[in-house]
User: Fold this.
Amino acid sequence: MTENSASKIIASLKQFIITELLNDESMSLSDDQDLLLSGLLDSLNVIRLAGHIESEFSISIPPEDMVVENFSTLVDIDTYIKNRTG
Amino acid sequence: MNIKEIQHTETVDYLIQSPVEYFARVTPNQAALAVQGRTLTYSELDRKSNQLANTLIKNGALPQDRIGIFHHKELELGVAIYGALKAGCVFVPLDPFMPADRLSFIINDCGIRHIISSDVQFKVLAEIQDYAELHCYGVEKELPFDQTRWSEIAESSTSNPNVIMIDQDLGYIMYTSGSTGVPKGMMHTHHGSVTYSRWGVAYVDLTAADKVASHAPLHFDLSIFDFFSTARAGATVVLVPEAITKFPASWSSYIEKEQITIVFTVPYTLITMLEQGAMEKRDLSCLRWILFGGEPFPPTKLRSLMAVLNKTTFSNIYGPAEAPCCTTYEVPRPLPESDDPLPIGIVSSNSTDLIIDENNNESKPGESGELCIRSSTLMKGYWNRPDLSDRAFLEIKEPGKLTKIFYRTGDRVVRDDNGQLHFLGRIDRMVKTRGHRVELDEIEAVLSDHAAVYEFAAFAVPDNEHASVLIMGAVTAKPSYDLSVSDLMKLARSKLPPYAVPREIYLLSEMPHTSSGKIDRRMLVERWQKMSETDSSL
Assistant:
């Protein structure tokens, strides 16, 4: 997978988080911002985000992959999706 | 009036912090706190909190001053709690995820002049309004107000400041959702907290070998058991970082890795662990007791969890934060094959209960009514809100006898033939979502403030998957105003804690009303359910 498509993944996730989960289009999110410690995503949003990733990228995320290490930042999620689809 | 109090300073055991001082001498190298492999021993915790207490005193903190704790789950959190207490002060847990507006409100409402925090909270701290008198501890980055860093605190004396206090003094003030649109602070004494923590030690037979998870946030009263019952046994509090609480598989892995023996949490946490926690890949035989409360636990899910954790004891613990651990019910093994909700059990030791009807008379046997509790753990009232306190308490006066003060829980219950209490619902509009108390009236008060809002209604819909509820909003716009849902969401996020922010807000052309002209919230719930089944609009 190329760099270009990697940033496409991040852009699409960002769009989903801002418009669907947080419903606040004025919000800015950086790629390495901690999504969990900052309180941006609560546990229900994490589940919705995982559901979105599963349908958007046609992968199924097993429970043991639903861990902090894979979801802390947009970069982490991007890496996880690349590992699963690449 | 300035008075000079005298106190003998020999060892005492009636304050929240007494056990830490005791175990710092008896088992100095035992871990008091642990988080992700890092630990703080009783000796270190005692010395570091003495240093913080001495620093607070040096900066003008007087006995019974309120000290804000705005901190995520880290070792410093323990130092912050005991540092505040040792200075004779009252600690005020502040939800680390609350927005700056709400934080500013509580700081002003409670008269907080000292706040202990960290760089993680920097962004919100920097947005605090009216900080003229505020002094912040533990933040490295430059703030627009006075601050002291940990490196400076570490230069203070490690000896106990021995501030004069008795167990009737306040130990902590915990803020919760208020129906008038602003949060209210419950005042708790050392005595109440020590009673609660002693109950905890006895109930689960805590010993120094136990590792008790601190999963609930500090501003949630389960944390009083986590921190203070554990300290009373000289055991270890294992802090669960906030990020881990959001991932059931990380949470189950953490229990195994840290060999946690006791967990006190809400059903939501346990249900998600059962369903998404990869439990078949974990060895959780370390867990000897799970206490749950805050919401009813559906028996079918509990039965499945008890089958997986087949050696663990389970107890249903009921009690509002105003009067913690009112009643207990140890879940029998095997759990009877019935889908009836579990009882909340019988009233704890050192407490009594009373069920009253709408005329404040005792309900007849077998009839439902509002549960009232008289307990040593009872709060002293709401901070600065005697009006709310008056409504919360029920005074029973009998000639020639001391007046008995009960707390009105607002919960409707019934007592069965075996003496067990059963929770039937609320008598007001408070709901529980994933264990958090939310007043729907508070959400409505906050969002009705928006200039373009004509009517706003908050309502709770069932979240069957997680045995909880989700909060929704419906709104109509004032004629000729342009109302954006995204604007309203922003307002909600700036004023309310994250769990109280509606999941969705539906913009309606007309609000449903009852024949008496009130907003028909029941109709909104029905319409929402129909909508989710048929994919139509609200």
